[in-house]
Amino acid sequence: MTFIEIFSRFFLFKHEDKVMQLNYLKSRRITEGATLRLLSILKMLAQIHVFLGILMLILSALADYVSSRKNTIRLNGLLECCSFYFVVMGSVGLCGAASYRRGLVIAILVMSVHAILIFVPGIVIVSSFDIHFHKHECWGSCDWHLLATSLPQNSQCQILCGTNVDEHKRSVMTRLGTDYRLDAGLIALAGLELLFAIATFLISLKIICSKITQQPIVEMMPLTAPQVQQADQSNKQEP
């Protein structure tokens, strides 16, 4: 089998697969034109998710870098994981819009729910705490490691802000929070991500569950012998 034959068969298989997916969506009583419009909107939303996820990934990595330079406490890696999830969600949406696969549309529907309920609020909450601690010049200390698997008995943590922290306490405590400009940018992008995640959820739900009125099927009845003779006579009478 030559390379051209293999390529032609592969192309034919992909074309038949797309036709089958379109036929499936049409069998769900969605017209082909409406299906293509919804999938094009889903593709645009998926591209926005990828773009926003990459921006948040860059900002969160930059915030971790600034935090390490100033020796402040920050939940390193948490915002990066949320941002990477948005990139993955957008990638799944691009694959679903390009291949017309219902399973991928369901996947981005579920991922958009996760983004709305878990990942966007997580970014907003963590960044809000960082802004609050940085604005009020808060310092903290614990007599146990923050990443310890179990807490010791009679353990103690302390957070002091503003004028309550003198030079001696600063020498034994750790600064909390990060530059508010980075966290404010993350919160703004998370708000945009929330809006587009809601739009993605609605579009995906419409692709899966939408129904339109089908056109009535017109059945053609065979003509009887008298009707055929009458039709012939009318054709002969016409000039």
TrEMBL record:
Membrane disposition: Multi-pass membrane protein
Pfam families: CD20
Record field: transmembrane: 46-66, 78-100, 106-126, 184-205
GO CC, alphabetical: membrane
Signal peptide bounds: none
Sorted UniProt keywords: Membrane, Transmembrane, Transmembrane helix
Name of the protein described by the UniProt record: Tetraspanin
